[in-house]
Every structure is written in C-alpha cells, then in structure tokens.
Design goal:
The protein is an all-beta fold and about 110 residues long. It is built from no helices and eleven strands. The strands form two sheets. Strands 2, 4, 5, 6, 9, 10 and 11 form a seven-stranded mixed beta sheet that branches. The chain is globular.
Length: about 110
C-alpha cells in the first residue's frame, strides 16, 4: 500500500496563498489517480480536487474552482495543491488520497 505524506499547511490571512504537497512512497504512484480532500472543524470530510495519472485531467469542487490548482510531478512522486485567494471557510485538515491510502493530513487555517 502506498504511503502518503502531506505538508505545507499553516496559518494564513484571508486572501493569501499556500501550496500543499503530497509525497508518495512508491514509483507506481505515477499510474494512480490522486485526490485531495479536506475536513473542516466539526464537519464531514469533503472532496476538493483530483488529478489523473498523467496530469491531463483535473476535477474541482465548486467551492474551490478558480482558486485552487492541483498538479503533479511523477518524476518526484509528488502531487501539489496550490491554494490562492484563501477564505476562512477553507480552514480544514487537508488530506491526499489514492485508492485506499490516506495521508495523516496537514492543517490549513485561514484567519479573517
């Protein structure tokens, strides 16, 4: 089972930017569809974005469309989530996922 490790979270003011990273432990990662999810405080985990194996196809939740960009570098076994124009409602723990594997999450806090 592939191991995933997220990083890049932190505290940022509304309107700011952060880039999250997801590092994978296996070279076969390059053939996997990768998703980002988030879990706001006291709420259910929700889908944020996904990217196919080549990076040529991406999908976004309506709430982040136009502000977030998912990308990947298969040579480095990495997936990224660039988050711009952050809002307080983006505050959550962010997780990357592929198949049945989940990372430990990284906290993003957006202050108003």
């Amino acid at each position: 089972q592939v191991q995933l490790v997220e990083s890049g979270g932190g505290l940022v003011q509304a309107g700011g930017s952060l880039r999250l990273s997801c590092a994978a432990s296996e070279r076969t990662f390059s053939s996997y569809h990768i998703r980002w999810f988030r879990q706001p405080p006291g709420k259910e985990r929700e889908f944020v974005a996904s990217i196919n194996w080549s990076g040529g196809s991406t999908v976004y939740a309506d709430s982040v469309k136009g502000r977030f960009t998912i990308s990947r570098d298969n040579a480095k076994n990495m997936v990224y989530l660039q988050m711009n124009s952050l809002k307080p409602e983006d505050t959550a723990v962010y997780y990357c996922n592929t198949r049945s594997s989940w990372g430990q999450g990284t906290q993003v806090t957006v202050s108003s």
